[in-house]
Design brief:
This protein is mostly helical. It contains seven helices and four strands; from the N terminus they run H-H-H-E-E-H-H-H-E-E-H. It has one domain. The N and C termini lie far apart (about 55 Å).
Length: about 210
């Protein structure tokens, strides 16, 4: 197979910046919508809170940390990378995941739908610090991972819609053909470390150790 030509926009750093900026915009908008127009606890029991429910079944600190890490790295991060195997009209499908997290996460925080905590326990000062050092840290880690792996675009789609005659993908390369640049490898490693640290902070908060 010939050397693949995968569409990549900008450096890994620019991809991180604009993804994080768009995430922040959507997350804050969803937060305000949830806060002003939806009832408290609106998102509890939704699929987005499944990971928290599973992690809470653990009785020990390290047990819960392991389950949180398993969900964050073993599920969320892997799903993000697998999505990047596909590009739709030149746009990595992995880009859609942080946008989904922005909307769902904003609604969860805006309606106080957390499974392991209650934002009414904290003032705005401390609550904002917790949000930045836990959920925001994990999200930033996912964005690092996604931005670093957009070259995994094995399959190219020419349409967003399955019923379109152009929805069938074209395989442009094998996964073994992917060569990440050093900055992308560094950002991938940083992303993994951020997710691990965020999961650790989340477990500390659950056990009232912060």
């Amino acid at each position: 197979m010939n050397t693949p030509q995968v569409h990549i926009s900008g450096s890994v750093y620019s991809r991180i910046l604009w993804l994080y900026g768009l995430f922040t915009l959507l997350s804050n908008t969803a937060f305000l919508i949830g806060y002003y127009w939806l009832p408290e606890g609106f998102m509890r029991g939704s699929p987005q809170t499944v990971g928290g429910e599973v992690a809470m079944t653990a009785q020990s600190f390290w047990g819960q940390f392991g389950l949180t890490l398993l969900f964050n790295l073993g599920v969320t991060a892997v799903v993000s990378i697998v999505l990047n195997f596909n590009q739709i009209k030149g746009i990595p499908a992995g880009y859609l995941y942080p946008l989904f997290m922005a909307v769902s996460g904003g609604l969860i925080s805006g309606t106080n739908s957390f499974m392991a905590s209650d934002l009414t326990q904290y003032n705005a000062y401390y609550g904002h610090a917790l949000a930045l050092s836990i959920g925001n840290l994990e999200t930033l880690g996912f964005i690092f991972i996604i931005a670093a792996t957009v070259k995994f675009g094995v399959y190219q789609y020419r349409s967003w819609w399955r019923w379109s005659g152009e929805w069938k993908p074209t395989k442009v390369m094998n996964l073994r053909d992917v060569r990440l640049l050093k900055p992308e490898i560094v950002c991938l490693a940083i992303g993994i470390l951020l997710v691990i640290f965020g999961a650790y902070r989340e477990t500390l908060m659950t056990f009232n150790m912060l």
